[in-house]
Amino acid sequence: TGHHVQPPTKTSPKFNNQDFTHLRDYCLSRGLLFEDDTFPAHVSSIGPNLLSEDKLSRLQWKRPTMIERNPHLIVDGVSRFDIIQGEIGDCWVLAALGSLTLQRQFLENVLPKDQGFKENYAGIFHFRFWHFGDWVDVVIDDRLPFLNGRYLSVQPRSRNEFWPSLLEKAYAKLRGSYQTLHWGYISDALVDLTGGVQVQFLLQKPPSDLQEIIKAAAKSQCLMGCTTMELKNGLVKGHAYTVTGATEIPYKNGWEDIIRVWNPWGHGEWRGPWSDGSPQWDRVPVEYKKDLYEDKDNGEFWMSGQAFAEQFFSLYICNNTPSFLDFGDQRGTRWSLAMYVNQWTRGLTAGGSNYHNVEEPDLKTYNVVVSLMRKPVNNMPDAQISFTGFLIFRVSKDCHGTINHFLQFQGLRDRLPVAFFSQYKSKVLKYGFNMSTRDVTNYFYLSPGIYAIVPATSEEGQEAEFLLRIFLRRQDSNDNTMLYMFGRLPSSLGWTLALRKEG
After folding, report:
1. Residues 416, 501 contacting (CB under 8 angstroms)
2. Which helix (H) or strand (E) holds 21?
3. Which residue is catalytic, options 126, 222, 263, 318?
4. 104 — phi, psi (to 5°)?
5. Claim: this prediction has a pTM higher than 0.85
6. Cα(490)–Cα(289) distance, rounded to whole angstroms?
7. For all residues of the chain together, what is the average pLDDT?
8. Which of 91, 222, 226, 318 is catalytic?
9. Please, which residues bridge with residue 499 across strands?
């Protein structure tokens, strides 16, 4: 049965029912260092296919207190430059983490302050992640994997600073093993670190106002990342980066849009125009250059907006609401949210889909964002459910008939009949079904009316649990547009959504 998911509270559910304070107090009272039986210092926590048997046999687990005389969780604040990617291909996690360090309102939730290596140290730490509708508190011990004396996972730039390695270990535990971090989608990590909604722009056909979108996202404190497909001019193939800034500066006789990007390797930079040491910087006024330009091999670099769109494959933007759609103007904009959990069941509601996408209007007109997330079985990727998506049917232009339409649907006890889909086939908006990502999100302009939202799989008979989130935008304080969520249409996996302007 579907149920409404409440917004996260300050008291997070305990992952594996492990309570950080209780476990730490127990260890302190007995003079013990915590050892986590649910994610042990053992090859099972690494995963079966990440390393060869020979390397697995040489693996060592060390606590920070064994490595450094004076370890700290954080030294001089948290920064993206604290991170250097290790042997594991988890750039998608570290690029999202680099963006998180720029947004303190999210960072302080993920990285609790009630822990460290000085007071009350007992070899135990905890971190919070958003996991399928809930913030969960993940406890770990501080034994870290080393291979041939080197960090297997992320290594800190400062030898005695350990927040990146410990946070990465907690995320590996949440996902099942270190192996599950080896390749993934930055979109997943952005959502797991914020509990927010992410949108993706494919840059082969970028929106005409791409630079404006990025600047608006930066202004509204969004997390941003990007990915490459090809090896070009200093950029790495199949790699995730963090977008850390966007601005325009005077150049020659006009203005140039530039975008700042960071590589989670901690080195390896773009070598084209606007890179460190490029001649373009010689023609920028000193007062601009001194605030923006740094010639350091730290993985961060500037490039033109045009080169960014040419060199990168995708741009991802994430925030707790779709604030980038406000284009930086948040004075009169509010977003409401409804969340529901349900599942596709073979023979009942896993019916598949064969609809086609429709054209979309201008970005600035969107007022609804729909996000569908499927839950992996046992927290592992489910290869059998490759494509998911959702359909939005326009049921009625008349909002005053809301209750009557709802009562008509409520009478259905099995699922929406074939007659429903044939009746409204010409009035459907569809999204997804061509991506294997966990999270399928898109934005729409929906005029006042009644809509039915139907999450679906691409093929009949595929089963999984899913989370549906719907964000509704209100333009200003006088906008009384209402979002009515009537709940699941019994056994049909449809929800009725009414957009109604009152007063």
Report:
1. no
2. helix 20-30
3. 263
4. -65, -30
5. yes
6. 61
7. 83
8. 91
9. 449, 483
State the burial class of residue 89 (Cβ atoms within 10 Å of its Cβ: 0-12, 13-18, 19+): middle
Bridge partners (DSSP) of residue 431 are 390
As a whole number of angstroms, the distance between CA 307 and CA 207 comes to 14
First-to-last alpha carbon distance for the chain, in angstroms, is 35
263 a catalytic residue: yes
Whether residue 478 lies in the annotated active site: no
Tokens read off for 378:
């046992």
The closest of 115, 101, 127 to 71, measured between CA atoms, is: 115
Dihedral (CA of 25, 26, 30, 36) sign? negative
Q: Confirm if 249 and 288 have CB atoms less than 8 A apart.
A: yes
CB contact set of 482 (below 8 Å; sequence gap of 6+):
498, 499, 500, 501, 502
The token pair that represents 122 in the structure block: 């007992």
Q: Does residue 316 surpass a pLDDT of 90?
A: yes
pLDDT reported for residue 173? 97
Q: Is 226 a catalytic residue?
A: no
Write out the two tokens for 163. Answer: 């927040």
432: amino acid identity, one letter: G
Q: Which domains does the chain have, with CATH numbers?
A: 13-192 (no CATH), 197-314 (3.90.70.10), 331-500 (2.60.120.380)
Radius of gyration over alpha carbons of the chain, in Å? 24
| CA 249 and chain centroid, separation | 30
Catalytic residue among 226, 239, 318, 367: 239
